[in-house]
C-alpha cells in the first residue's frame, strides 16, 4: 500500500498546471475554449477553434458534442473534439483518480514502481533516525545547558532529520522518483524491456554514470530542510503530548494504542508545514540536466518561485493528501513499535 501512495504523491507533485492556449480575440468565445491539457482531462485530445461571436451555450455544446458547429451570423466557430478512446479513465486528479489512470495506462503493477527504492531506503532511514535522535538528545543533555528540555528535543529531532537526509533519504528518493516518473506501459513486454530505470541499484548506477555521482544528491538542500523540519516537529510534538498524557494518567508508560494515536497525530504536523519543500525537491530530483543547457529549476528559492508563478501558490501543496495518507499511519506504527521495543529492552536490562 505504501509504494502505491508514494507513487500517487510523486505523480501529483510532478504534474504541471500550466496550459497552452490559443489567443482568442472575442471575449465571448475565449472562456469556452479553455480546454485543459491531457494530464488533467485525458478524454480531450484535440481542439481546433476558429474565431466566432457565437454564444457561450452554443460553444459549450460544441465542446461536449464532437463535430457540432456553433454558428452566429457571418462568423463561424467549430470545435472538433475527438471522442473518448475506448478504456480511457475519466477520473478526478486526486489519489483515487491518479491510481485509476496509472492502472489503465500502465497496468496494475505500475502502482508498485519504485518499491525497491522505498524498502531499501526506509529500513536504514528509520534506524538512523531513532539512533541519531537518542545520541543527539543524550549529547545535548550531558554537554549543554539545554538538558532534557523541549528545545533540546527539537534540536535533536532537527539534527536527526538532517543526518538521515544526507546518509540515506536523498539518493534513495532520487532513484525512487526517476523510477516512478517514467511513463511506460507495464502491460507491454516490449516497453518493459526498453524502460531506462529497472531497479534501485541499476538506477543509481545509470544516474551516476550519465550525470555524475553528484546527481544522486540533487535536491539535497530541500530534502535536508524537509527531513529536519519533519523530525523536529515530529519528535517535539510526540514528546510533549506523551508527557502530558502520562502526567494526567499518573503513569510512566503509555499503552500501545496511545503511542499509536499520538504517533499518528504528531506525524501529520510536519508534512502540512513543509510540503512546498517536498514539491520542489521532487521537481529538482526528476529533471535531467544536460550539459550546456540551463535547467528549469536551479535551486530551492528559484524553484518555489517558478512553481508558484506558473501553477499558482497552491501547487506547492500538491501531493499533500497521499503524503498524509502515507506518513500518518507510518509514523503511528513506527512510534508504537519503537515504544514497545524500547520497553522490552529496558525490562531486560539491555540499555544498562
Can you walk through the features of this model?
By secondary structure, the protein is mainly alpha-helical. The chain has 2 domains: 13-78, no CATH class; 113-347, Mitochondrial carrier fold. Helix content is 61%, strand content 2%. It is built from 11 helices and 2 strands, in the order H-H-E-E-H-H-H-H-H-H-H-H-H. Strands 1-2 form a two-stranded antiparallel ribbon. Strand 1 and strand 2 (75-78) form a beta hairpin. Helix 8 runs antiparallel to helix 9 (256-286). The two termini are 38 Å apart.
SS class = mainly alpha
In the CATH scheme, the class of the largest domain would be Mainly Alpha
Give Rg in angstroms.
Answer: 25 Å
Proportion of residues in helical segments:
55-70%
Through-space gap between termini: 38 Å
Number of domains: 2
| Residue share in β-strands | under 5%
Low-confidence stretches: 18-55, 72-89
Query: How would you describe the shape?
Result: globular
Major beta sheet, strand line-up: 1-2
What's the SSE pattern?
HHEEHHHHHHHHH
The CATH topology of the largest domain turns out to be Mitochondrial carrier fold
CATH architecture of the largest domain: Alpha/alpha barrel
What's the total count of β strands?
2
The CATH homologous superfamily of the largest domain is named: Mitochondrial carrier domain
Report mean pLDDT, rounded to a whole number: 75
Number of helices: 11
Task: Give the biggest sheet.
Answer: 2 strands, antiparallel
Amino acid at each position: 500500500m505504501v509504494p502505491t501512495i508514494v507513487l500517487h504523491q510523486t505523480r501529483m507533485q510532478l504534474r504541471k498546471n500550466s496550459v497552452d492556449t490559443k489567443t482568442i480575440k472575442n471575449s465571448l468565445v475565449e472562456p469556452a475554449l479553455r480546454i485543459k491539457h491531457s494530464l488533467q482531462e485525458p478524454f480531450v485530445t484535440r481542439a481546433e477553434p476558429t474565431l466566432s461571436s457565437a454564444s457561450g451555450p452554443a460553444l459549450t455544446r460544441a465542446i461536449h458534442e464532437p463535430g457540432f458547429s456553433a454558428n452566429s451570423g457571418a462568423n463561424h466557430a467549430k470545435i472538433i473534439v475527438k471522442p473518448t478512446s475506448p478504456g480511457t479513465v475519466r477520473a478526478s486528479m486526486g489519489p483515487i483518480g491518479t491510481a485509476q489512470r496509472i492502472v489503465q495506462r500502465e497496468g496494475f503493477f505500475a502502482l508498485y514502481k519504485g518499491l525497491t527504492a522505498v524498502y531499501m531506503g526506509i529500513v536504514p532511514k528509520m534506524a538512523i533516525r531513532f539512533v541519531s535522535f537518542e545520541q543527539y538528545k543524550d549529547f545535548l543533555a550531558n554537554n549543554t545547558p539545554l538538558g532534557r528540555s523541549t528545545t533540546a528535543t527539537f534540536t535533536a529531532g532537527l539534527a536527526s532529520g538532517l543526518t538521515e537526509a544526507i546518509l540515506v533519504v536523498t539518493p534513495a528518493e532520487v532513484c525512487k522518483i526517476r523510477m516512478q516518473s517514467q511513463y511506460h506501459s507495464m502491460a507491454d513486454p516490449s516497453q518493459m524491456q526498453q524502460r531506462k530505470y529497472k531497479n534501485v541499484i541499476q538506477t543509481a548506477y545509470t544516474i551516476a554514470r550519465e550525470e555524475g555521482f553528484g546527481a544522486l544528491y540533487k535536491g539535497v538542500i530541500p530534502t535536508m530542510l524537509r527531513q529536519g523540519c519533519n523530525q523536529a516537529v515530529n519528535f517535539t510534538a510526540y514528546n510533549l503530548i506523551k508527557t502530558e498524557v502520562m502526567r494526567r494518567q499518573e503513569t510512566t508508560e503509555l499503552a500501545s494504542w496511545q503511542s499509536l494515536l499520538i504517533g499518528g497525530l504528531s506525524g501529520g504536523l510536519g508534512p502540512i508545514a513543509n510540503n512546498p519543500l517536498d514539491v520542489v525537491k521532487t521537481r529538482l530530483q526528476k529533471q535531467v540536466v544536460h550539459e550546456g543547457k540551463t535547467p528549469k529549476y536551479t535551486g530551492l528559492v528559484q524553484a518555489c518561485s517558478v512553481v508558484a508563478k506558473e501553477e499558482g501558490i497552491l501547487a506547492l501543496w500538491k501531493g499533500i493528501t497521499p503524503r498524509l495518507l502515507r506518513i500518518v499511519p507510518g509514523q503511528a506504527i513506527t512510534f508504537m513499535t519503537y515504544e514497545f521495543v524500547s520497553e522490552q529492552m529496558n525490562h531486560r536490562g539491555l540499555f544498562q
